[in-house]
């Protein structure tokens, strides 16, 4: 009976240690997430500032009238568009190279 009680107490201590460890990890993740959100906002502000700065003196300053979220969304969609165009171009290039290889392999040996 006494050994069973000791075993139960040991298991209880282990569970409590695990709970404390998980609570500490959760706190650590929460602070990391908060720090990353702050860094993200800082980078977004920097991007918006650089975009407005690069417009030049005579260009219309939309940045002052546009909502911050709208401007960021436009920048993100423009970046995604460029990435999609690049992927499509790469896909076309690879498919045309494969077609050239396939046609080159099927040609007689003297014509290559």
UniProtKB/TrEMBL annotation:
Coiled coil: 5-53
Basic and acidic residues: bias regions: 79-101
Region annotation (Disordered) ranges: 77-112
Source superkingdom: Eukaryota
Entry keywords, A to Z: Coiled coil
Protein's UniProt name: Laminin subunit gamma-1
């Amino acid at each position: 009976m006494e050994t069973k009680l000791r075993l139960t107490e040991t298991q209880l201590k282990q569970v409590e240690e695990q709970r404390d460890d998980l609570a500490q990890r959760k706190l650590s993740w929460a602070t990391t997430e908060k720090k990353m959100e702050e860094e993200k906002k800082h980078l977004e502000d920097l991007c918006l500032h650089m975009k407005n700065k690069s417009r030049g003196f005579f260009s219309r300053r939309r940045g002052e009238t546009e909502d911050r979220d709208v401007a960021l969304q436009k920048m993100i969609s423009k970046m995604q568009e460029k990435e999609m165009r690049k992927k499509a171009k790469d896909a076309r290039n690879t498919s045309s190279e494969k077609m050239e290889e396939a046609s080159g392999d099927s040609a007689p040996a003297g014509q290559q």
